[in-house]
Amino acid sequence: MPMVDDAAAPHFIRLRELGEDRIEDVLALAGRLKRGTSRAELSGRSVGMLFFRGSLRTRTSLEVALYQLGGHTVNLTASSDFWELEARHGTVMDGAAPEHIRDAAGVLSSYVHALAIRPKPAGRSWEVDRRDEGIRAWAEYARVPVINMESALWHPLQALADLFTLRETFGPLAKKRIAITWTPSPTPSGPAVIHSTLLAALRSGMNVAVAHPRGYELDGGVMSEAEEIARERGGKLETGLSPEEAVKDADVVYARSWSSLEVYGNPTLAASRVARSAGWTVDEKLMALGNDARLMHPMPVRRNLEVSDEVLDGPRSLLMAQAENRLHTQKGLLSMLLRG
Ligand code: CP
Asked: Are 76 and 49 in contact (CB under 8 A)?
């Protein structure tokens, strides 16, 4: 049944795994599909989508993407639609989970042509969660491509749409300045979106300025990779700036809440850090420091806490284009992964 054999299944856990040529192909196809100058056809193809935590955009845009291409998705939500799963190798399964990921992935691989997974990091230790073992176990056992719908470390589907939106808005990206700024939230996200989009921006030759309060440094391994890419591509990478320093002369401001990795797994300390971080809301005064700057945010966005209504509803906002482009870029990606 699956059209991709065991050895060849190309997984999409992080953007880099596609390779630069294929990223270009996917973006070009997405552009043609958006303009209506190309058609893609995936009739008879199915994708299983497994959600271990909630989603609005990813779930809807992937489902509609495959529907518009003539294919079909099966949506499964953990806790209501399938058994609790064991991920450990060689364990005696006498706990709560009656099924192993190995068996679930094997079975689903004989029904569908790709598996899209949104895992739920345990949230106790960043050192453990950053290994992305949840999604990597699916990739290890599945015989079809596994698509990451946002793990602890990466959100490649968002980065693909962000890259498309940046190019659509600015054309060539080399030397454009993107200010990535932390925003406050009582329910901060993980750093996955920022990690993926930061590397995509640097790979495009952009100058990247990251602003965050002390204690909100991004993952050390990702930042080492970011420095290497900046050196390779000739972009400038600045970190630990204030919002004003980062946004000064920026062409685009990318706002996003993310949790402190320093106190990861300690909700009390995390909440007190957020409470101490007043003054990080993105508003028109901050945006005015940029170079006619546009605003991006992957959503969901907390209005008047992360970003003011004035900016969100004004002409600087690219949020709706970004969200719409999830659909077009995922159509491009699915066409490439499932065409066989
Ligand atoms: N940006 C994003 O992935 O949105 P959802 O969490 O709603 O899917």
From this structure: yes
Q: What confidence score (pLDDT) does residue 275 get?
A: 80
Assign 254 to helix, strand or coil.
strand
Distance 95 CA to ligand 1 centre (A): 32
pLDDT, position 75: 94
CB 114 within 8 A of CB 82: no
Looking at the CA of residue 149, tell me the nearest atom of ligand 1.
Answer: 3
Q: Amino acid identity of 181?
A: T
pTM: 0.95
**CA of residue 57 to ligand 1 center, whole Å:** 5
Report whether 298 contacts 141 (CB < 8 A): no
Is the shortest distance between the CB of 150 and ligand 1 below 6 Å?
yes
- Looking at domain 6-154+325-338, its CATH architecture is 3-Layer(aba) Sandwich (3.40)
To test the pocket of ligand 1, the residue of 50, 51, 53, 57 to mutate (highest count of ligand atoms within 8 Å of its CB) is 57
**pLDDT tens across 65-113, in order?**
999 999 999 999 987 888 889 988 899 999 999 999 999 999 999 999 9
- Stretch 38-59: mean pLDDT, rounded? 95
CA-based nearest residue to 180, from 114, 246, 227, 274: 246
Q: Largest Cα–Cα distance of the chain, in whole Å?
A: 60
Domain at 156-323: CATH code: 3.40.50.1370
Check residue 40 and give its pLDDT: 83
Whether 200 has a pLDDT exceeding 90, the answer reads yes
Residue range(s) of every CATH 3.40.50.1370 domain in the chain? 6-154+325-338, 156-323
Q: Give the per-residue pLDDT at 5.
A: 37
Ligand 1 geometric centre to CA of 337 (Å): 21
